[in-house]
Amino acid sequence: MPNSDPAGGNRPGLPLEQFKPRSMLRVRETRVPTPRFPVIDFHTHLSWSRGLESGDEITIVAEPSELLPVMDAKRIRVMVNLTGGYGRGLERAIATHVKSFPDRFMIFTEPWWSRVAETRYAQFQADEIERAQRLGARGLKVLKTLGLYARENVTTGPLIKVDDARFEPMWEAAGALNLPVLIHVSDPRAFFEPIDRFNERWEELHAWPEWSFHGRDFPSNLELQEARRRVIKRHPRTQFVCAHFADAEDLSYVADLMDGCPNMHVDFSARLAELGRQPRATRRFFDRYQDRILFGTDAVPRDHRFPQQVFGETLYEIYYRFLETNDEYFDYSPARLPPQGRWRIYGIDLPDSILRKVYWENAARLLRLDPARFG
Fold it and tell me: Is 5 within the bounds of a domain?
């Protein structure tokens, strides 16, 4: 009589972390060691600010000497360090990367989260954007600190909303100074769901439970997205880049955002896992919004928390393969195990006319770079 027990009866089970299946498919494997056009990596992290209460200290996580060999090998003409900090930290980050190699590195400043509870914060923050620009910052990066971590008393009290009025002068200052704003709100949708057997990112959230925003006093994914929409619409002369494709798991929603906000762009950093498993919809999106999509990896040197984003030649080759080939069912990460979910991705085989825009033209336009540098 057949065993009706779906777990296999008396057969021993296999712990999920030991399950490392080898695909039996025989599919084309195209290596793309260099891209067809030069690249501006619009989304990297070469330094980190030290938290909500740490003032203007910063940690440098990669020196130019570590980065340039890979950049040269992979045709990366410019890297944008988004987390350049503020105050003395920003000055140090600029001295480390930009002053030594001004043609290869650019830096974004960040808000002073440690001073957000101050009475005159709104004007102070707007003034700091101007100061950062004079120092050499080329944009503003707003982490998901806004909406998910920063609170009325910095680390205590209610969460500060993404569209809080105290940031209005900051958004306006960025627009007046032609500084693009790269804004990250929310996270993958699974991070807002219970960490249970139905959650497709169970392994990731089991390893990093602090990444879960389910329950407690966190806003929903949609509330965060809609608050960002209101900010973008209220500041039409400011150019916003929504990190991680805004909401890569619902491209129809992102298309609605793009249609209603002509000053909105997206980068696809750390979202190949989502985009590559819906290649036809993704290809249509790239075709429709080809002038407003930016190349980014979210590259983080030497950080074990982000194996899918560890800076190196393999990381860039996966991105180039995704963009330039129609290969099927390949790994979206250089990590030994799929870090975001147990699936593989498919290439979208973009034509040269779109690749050129995505690799460098769109970013160069936002950063006001001379196109002759990329000829």
Answer: no
Reported as a single tens digit per residue, the pLDDT across 303-323 is 878 877 889 999 999 999 999
In sequence order, which residues have a C-beta less than 8 Å from that of residue 354 and are 6 or more positions away? 286, 287, 290
Work out the number of other CB atoms within 10 angstroms of the CB of residue 375.
6
Please tell me the predicted confidence (pLDDT) of residue 8. Answer: 52
What is the C-alpha to C-alpha distance for residues 90 and 303, in angstroms, rounded to an integer?
21
Total tally of structural domains belonging to the chain: 1
Give residue for tokens 């040197």.
Answer: 301
User: What is the token pair recorded at 373?
Assistant: 């540098």
121 inside domain = yes
From the list 301, 282, 242, 320, the residue with the least C-alpha distance to 76 is 320
Phi, psi of 69, deg, nearest 5: -60, -40
To the nearest 10 degrees (0 to 180), the angle between helices 121-135 and 168-176 is: 30
Q: Is residue 3, in this structure, part of any structural domain at all?
A: no
Q: Does any domain span residue 334?
A: yes
Range of the domain at 218: 27-374
Q: pLDDT under 50 in the chain at which residues? A: 1-4
Compute the residue count for the chain: 375
pTM of this prediction? 0.94
Q: How many other CB atoms are found less than 10 A from the CB of residue 225?
A: 21
Q: Is the dihedral of CA 324, 353, 278, 295 positive or negative?
A: positive
Q: Is the Cβ–Cβ distance between 41 and 76 less than 8 Å? A: yes
CATH number of the domain encompassing residue 288: 3.20.20.140
